[in-house]
Amino acid sequence: MMNVLELSLLSQAHNLPASLAERLRFEVEQTLKGLYADESLVERIDDLFLPFARWVSEYTKPKHTPLILGLGGPQGCGKTTFCSVVSHILAKGFDLNAIEVSLDDLYLQRSDRLHYAQKVHPLFATRGVPGTHDIPLALNIFERLKHLQAGEVMYVPTFDKSLDDRKPVHRWQEVAGPVDVIFFEGWCVGAQPMSKEHLMDPINALEKDKDQDGSWRTAVNEHLESDYRKLFDLIDVIMWMQPPSFDVVYDWRNKQERVLEAHLHDIHGGVLDTLDIKVMSPEALKGFMQHYERITRHMICSMLQNADVQFVLDAKQKVLETKLPISH
């Protein structure tokens, strides 16, 4: 773990111009609206987003390839919002081409996931845990992003959670080169494998009832040790959003699901129930999140020691404290 510097001290040290923050305010407001996020976050420009963007801009200077920032954190903690806001600030305020790649967009196609579930364990039919992502595709994407030149364009997959499947190619994210900064975010980004002793006892009802022999959680852990390690080793800076406890994670994720539900109702209106679009009920969500519980709890206990950058959150997802590497 590197020595760390408080973000508040960084802000003071760099004497950030007020004109830059004011110029970016509208951009940030529009970004938050587009994400259906808390628009009051625009008030964190001066003490969070802009100082962090300044730090990222300084960190990129010695590099000749894109800086890859990996952000892990429990579901619903605000990873996507944070990365989107900082990406916009880097583009508009620092002339850096920053893009976002989400682990959630790199799932195996539904048919491939179901095939893997039949071959290894039925619980792999549910997306989320290591083993349900297309790691060869992810490695190829990052390799291509590293070498994307001016005038070149590539496309990054996107995933439709409401359909539980990858979107068709014509709806993928377009990326123009060259890329300066890549934000790679996902709930288990940076996760490290557990010891065999930690895997012995079931952690919840799902594991007790549907993984009695421990083969599913063992296979998940083996993925962390092998192909996911190759993916996470590409990351230059590991970042982590630390919740106050595991108990708040359900509330965060449920809020996220209800926002998705309202958004889909806005689009489809009264015909939503007739479409093949899935929004989880609160009860269904509780069962779904048990798939994530083991690794999430492990990361809550370990990532403050393992992450290079730490964001400490309160129960309302407010960033209370940020620690950054002093040098690189």
What does this molecule look like?
- This protein has 328 residues and is of the alpha/beta class.
- It has a single domain, classed as 3-Layer(aba) Sandwich (Rossmann fold), CATH 3.40.50.
- It is built from 12 helices and 11 strands.
- The strands form 3 sheets. A 7-stranded mixed beta sheet has the order 1-11-10-9-2-8-3, with helices on both faces.
- Strand 10 and strand 11 form a beta hairpin.
- Helix 1 crosses helix 3, helix 2 packs across helix 4 and helix 3 crosses helix 4.
- The longest helix has 25 residues.
- The radius of gyration is 20 Å and the shape is globular.
- The N and C termini lie close together (12 Å).
- 37% of the residues are buried.
CATH superfamily annotation: P-loop containing nucleotide triphosphate hydrolases
How many β-strand runs? 11
Find the CATH topology. Answer: Rossmann fold
Q: Helix share of residues? A: 40-55%
The tally of helices reads 12
Please state the second-level CATH architecture.
3-Layer(aba) Sandwich
Strand content: 15-25%
Specify the CATH class: Alpha Beta
**Low-confidence segments, ≥5 residues, pLDDT <50?**
1-5
Quick check: average pLDDT? Answer: 90
- Gross morphology is globular
Strand order of the largest sheet: 1-11-10-9-2-8-3
For the terminal residues, how far apart are their CA atoms?
A: 12 Å
The main pleated sheet reads as:
7 strands, mixed
Helix and strand pattern:
EHHHEHEHHEEEEEHHHHEHHEE
Radius of gyration based on Cα positions = 20 Å
Pairing-aware structural class of the strands and helices? Answer: alpha/beta
Question: How many domains would you count in the coordinates?
Answer: 1
